[in-house]
Write a structure and sequence with these properties.
The complex is a heterodimer of chains A (270) and B (134). Chain A has a single domain, classed as MetI-like fold, CATH 1.10.3720.10. Chain A contains 13 helices and no strands. The two termini of chain A are 22 Å apart. Chain B is elongated, with a radius of gyration of 24 Å. In chain B, strands 2, 3, 5, 6 and 7 form a five-stranded antiparallel beta sheet that branches. Chain B folds into two domains: 37 residues; 86 residues, Immunoglobulin-like. By secondary structure, chain B is α+β, with helices and mostly antiparallel strands. Chain B is built from three helices and nine strands. In chain B, a hairpin with a 3-residue loop joins strand 5 and strand 6. The chains are: A mainly alpha (270), B alpha+beta (134).
Chain lengths: 270, 134
Amino acid sequence: MHRYPRWPIHLVLVGVSFLMLIPFYWVLKTSVTGENIFAYPPSILPKSPHPFYYVDVWYYIPFARYFANSVAVSMIAVIANVVLNAMAGYALTRDFPAKAFVLLLFLSCMMVPFQATIIPAYLITGRLGLLDSYLGLALPQFSTIVCIFVFKASFDAVPRSLIDAARIDGLAEWRIVWKVMLPLAKGAIATNVILAFIWSWNNFLWPLIVTRSADMQTLPLGLARFLSYQEDTTGALYAFCIMVLAPGILLFLLAQKEFIRGLTSGATKG
Amino acid sequence: MSADEIETPPWRRLLINRFVLVPAAIAMAIVLWNVYVSTHNHGVVAGRVVDAAGQPVSGATVVLWVLNFTTYVEKTSATTDSTGRFVITDNDSHNIRLAAEKPGVGRSPRVPVRLYFRAQDIEVREPLTISGAS
């Protein structure tokens, strides 16, 4: 029961949402007009919009190849994330010696930036013979600590009696994860999928270091290459940005319900 | 599990959901677009050349420039027939320019023509207008 009208807060939220969407709208508008972004006064509505900047991007660089590379790397990263993070998250719900220390170690590792570990990561990838390969491109993103904790929070919300019942029925630990825990953690899976996909999709530094041939480059590298080729590229550059952003936005829109549920699971426990 | 989920057959739940329908719709659009492209990419660029009075110009040379990364280079040319019509058949670019010229009659400005894909068959709507004797 609400003792006060809710429309004012909705009105404010709608207004804030529009403010948040302005940069996206501006990128979209510039991608179909190519107008100078420093023009004053700025035009709110696009004048003579056309899709030809997208055509230019498609043909100026091997966009399809870069796109396929990004998709392949992201798919590997997403699958590895879901599998490995689910196993790690489940392990953290169990009791074992020095569990608090392991949790502390995980949390402290979150503070180490990737740039600090990039040289050992490169050396390990090189020793494994995975440089300039899809597996090597995805390797450092096989597991992320944030996503492990998302799974842990989701698994913590599952009643212990359910796991005990599965164990009495003779299920091995990995089958408990696969058959009992994961079906109850769709929100956490969606969160993992979206985060792993977006992080892998937008990753620039690691592909820059680990790729050697132009054929293995991903879209963020393609964007940098595109900028080095072209000078007057306002429209094409923004079109490229839209083409790079679109898959991530689409994935988020498709799975946003599960994503929000995954982020908030465990938050209201107790 | 809701009552609807219990009553719905598993195959229906697997196939009729947004995670399948949206990618399927996108895949369908891509296939249709590629079919359209493959049936309309013969590199034919056709149009008309007229003089300042709007009369067709026969025997005019129409030159096709294509974008070579940063500059336009001359690719090919064609000659107009008695009705002022020209047809170029070997365009392989998506970003072209056209210009017509006839000695004693004049030349037209270079007209930019943007195509939706390489070698798209196109009929240029606005005729190339020759003016000013060269």
